Amino acid sequence: MSTLDPASPPTGELPFFVYGTLLPCEPNHDLFLRGRTSGERAAVLPRALLYDGPGYPYAIDGHGRVHGTLLTAAPGVYEELLGLLDHLEEYLGPGHPRNLYERVVREIELPGEEQAGKGQPEEGTPEEGAPGAGTVRAWVYLAAAAVTRSLRTGGSVIDGGRWVTRRPPGGPRTP
């Protein structure tokens, strides 16, 4: 797996990789991110699977790819944004038994510059196997251990790793 050593905490302000209700045009994007980001771009979480949840998805370590967006916090709001996202994702601290998600550092793949803005499928996500512009370390909220166990035994994997494709065109958005 591409897990970075949790014993060596990241330095500086890492960007965030989002893949569900925080994506552009999804319900939590404006509620939590409007005015709090200075950059958003298509990105991919490698070695992960996406599962359908009760109105929102869960990513877990696995053999697929999850498509989403890399967010950079606007100057001066990093701690505020981190707190808001921790609250939204029900993250209480590393390994806390009541966590819904764990906030972890992962390597995120970025699409090549030649791919940016050129008819990308599904809200600008990179094509499978498209040439990349490299990787960046970012915070990702993955399903907590108890949720992961439940998903592995009875969850529904979202083929292609694109959560927005789960909503029918013109259909209602989930909270």
Gist of the model:
With 175 residues, the chain is of the alpha+beta class. Helix content is 18%, strand content 33%.
Detailed description of the structure:
The protein is of the alpha+beta class. About 20% of the residues lie in helices and about 35% in strands. It has 4 helices and 5 strands, in the order E-H-E-E-H-E-H-E-H. It has a 5-stranded mixed β-sheet with strand order 2-3-1-5-4. The chain is globular, with a radius of gyration of 15 Å. Mean pLDDT is about 85; it is low at about 1-10, about 115-130 and about 170-175.
Question: What tags apply to this protein structure?
Answer:
175 residues, single chain, 5 strands, alpha+beta, disordered N terminus, 4 helices, globular, 5-stranded mixed β-sheet, disordered C terminus, 18% helix
* Strand-residue proportion: 25-35%
Number of strands: 5
Q: What Rg is obtained from the alpha carbons, in whole angstroms? A: 15 Å
Report the sheet with the most strands, covering strand number, pairing sense and barrel closure: 5 strands, mixed
Order of helices and strands: EHEEHEHEH
| CA distance, first residue to last residue | 31 Å
- From the spread of the alpha carbons, the general shape counts as globular
Tally of contiguous helical segments: 4
- Give the overall pLDDT as a whole number: 83
Low-confidence parts: 1-9, 114-130, 169-175
Approximately how much helix is present in the residues? 10-25%
Class by helix and strand content? alpha+beta
Strand ordering within the main sheet = 2-3-1-5-4
